[in-house]
Design goal:
By secondary structure, the protein is of the alpha+beta class. It contains 4 helices and 9 strands. The strands form 3 sheets. It has a 5-stranded antiparallel beta sheet, sandwiched between helices.
C-alpha cells in the first residue's frame, strides 16, 4: 500500500525516533508498504518518520545510482546491491574528509542543495529478521545511509546548510509545509490538517 509522505514542517520529522523490537505490530507489512511508497515516489531511501512513525526504521534501495556513469566502477557495483532494511541503526564511526553532493528529500520536494558528509561510516543495525550486522559503508552508499539515519535522529538535510542557504530556501520550505507544492506522489501536509 502506498502511504502519504509527511511534508516538511510536520513535528514527527523533528522527533528522535525510538527503537523497536520484533514484536512491533505489523512490521512486515509496514516494511513492504514503505518500500512500495519509496519506489512510487522514485526515492532511494525512506525513513519511518517520513510516513508519520517516530521509530528507528528505514529502507534503502540505492540501485538507481548504479546507472550513473560518472561514478567509479567499484561504487556502481556496490550500489547495485545496496538494497536493505535498517532497524535500530547506529553510527559507530564517521571518517574521512567531508565531500559535497547534491541531496534532495521526499519530504522536501523540489528542493536540492549541496550537503557535506564524511565518506566512510561504520554502522551497526538489525535487519528485518532482527539479526545484528556491523558494516563499513563508503561513498554514495555511506551518504544515503547518513541521510536516512538523520531522519531517525530528527535531522533534515536542510539543517546542514549555511545560514545564507537556509534564508534563500525559507520561502520554498514554508510553501511545502502549507501544501503549496506539486509533488508527483501522495503527501501529507502539516498545515492542512482538518479542523474539528
Amino acid at each position: 500500500m502506498i502511504l502519504p509522505i509527511v511534508a516538511y514542517g510536520d513535528p514527527v520529522l523533528r522527533k528522535k525516533a525510538v527503537e523497536i523490537d520484533k514484536d512491533y505490530p505489523n512490521l512486515t507489512a509496514l516494511i513492504a508498504n514503505m518500500k512500495e511508497t519509496m519506489y512510487n515516489a522514485s526515492g532511494v531511501g525512506l525513513a519511518a518518520p517520513q510516513i508519520g512513525k517516530a521509530i528507528r526504521l528505514f529502507v534503502i534501495d540505492a540501485s538507481p545510482f548504479a546507472e550513473d556513469e560518472d561514478l567509479e566502477e567499484k561504487d556502481r557495483t556496490a550500489l547495485k546491491t545496496f538494497n536493505r532494511v535498517f532497524i535500530n541503526a547506529k553510527i559507530i564511526e564517521e571518517e574521512g574528509e567531508s565531500w559535497v553532493f547534491n541531496e534532495g528529500c521526499l519530504s522536501i520536494p523540489n528542493v536540492r542543495e549541496d550537503v557535506y558528509r564524511q565518506p566512510k561510516v561504520t554502522i551497526e543495525y538489525q535487519d528485518e529478521d532482527f539479526k545484528t550486522h556491523t558494516e563499513v559503508l563508503e561513498g554514495l552508499a555511506a551518504r544515503v545511509f547518513q541521510h536516512e539515519y538523520d531522519h531517525i535522529e530528527g535531522i533534515l538535510f536542510t539543517d546542514k546548510l549555511s545560514t545564507l542557504k537556509k534564508r534563500l530556501i525559507k520561502k520554498k520550505l514554508d510553501n511545502i509545509s502549507k501544501g503549496k507544492i506539486n509533488a508527483d506522489y501522495r503527501m501529507r501536509f502539516p498545515n492542512l490538517k482538518k479542523k474539528k
